[in-house]
Structures are given as structure tokens and as C-alpha cells.
Amino acid sequence: AHPAYFRVMNTPEFMDPDADPRIAALLEHGRGWMVGLINEGREAGGIASHDPLIVALAGQCLTYGLARMFVDGHLSRMGLPDSEAEAVAIAVTEILGVGLEPRASAGLHGDQA
Predict the structure, then answer these.
(1) Residue 104 has what pLDDT?
(2) d(CA 48, CA 100)
(3) Alpha-carbon distance 3 to 71, whole Å?
(4) Which runs of consecutive H residues, i.e. helices, occur in 10-84?
(5) Using 50, 70 and 90 to split pLDDT, how confident is the model at 31?
(6) Is 78 exposed, middle or buried (0-12, 13-18, 19+ CB in 10 A)?
(7) What span, in angstroms and rounded, lies between the C-alpha atoms of 65 and 39?
(8) pTM to 2 decimals?
(9) Directed axis angle between helix 21-43 and helix 52-71, to 10°?
């Protein structure tokens, strides 16, 4: 909804954790919160036993990349208008969630053995 906010929030000059301890603390707090949620999901059996930091990174990469694509206009050129951003984000993150579900065994292309 606010592409300029996204751009500022993700500009290294403004979000350098080495330049401002408050930014470092906020980033660490967010990372700790996310890892805590992932560990809760693992304990409940809803997330496979991947390294929680890697799971958090995968989620952050997916959501950042998707947001960047919306902000830069790539998705509207694919026929996905900004008005559908929330629905698209939910659909894309659900795909990540399916990939995190525990499985007995997966082959090369994710097929269960």
C-alpha cells in the first residue's frame, strides 16, 4: 500500500544495524520472535525439523522478494494487480508452508517415496 515506506525501510543507508544500535536491537528482536514462532511450530509437529534460522531466512526471502516485485511493478505486468497483493501474498506463502510440512521422505522433485 505504501511503496515509498518499503523502499526507505530497505535502504541500507537507513537500515544499517552497524550504524545504529536501535536498528540492531529491532532486527534481533524480530529474528528472535520469528525463530520462537518457528520452534513452536516444530514442537507442535506442523513444521519439519529444519534449522529455524534457515526457515526464517526462507520466509524473509520469499516475502521480501514478493514485496519488491509488487513495488517494482513486476507483478502488475504479469496480470496481478496491486489490489490483489494480499491475496497473492497469502497464496505464495501458503506454498512455502506446504514445503515446510513434515514428510516421511521426499524424492528429487518433492515426491514422497
Answers:
(1) 67
(2) 6
(3) 6
(4) 21-43, 52-71, 74-77
(5) very high
(6) exposed
(7) 24
(8) 0.72
(9) 120
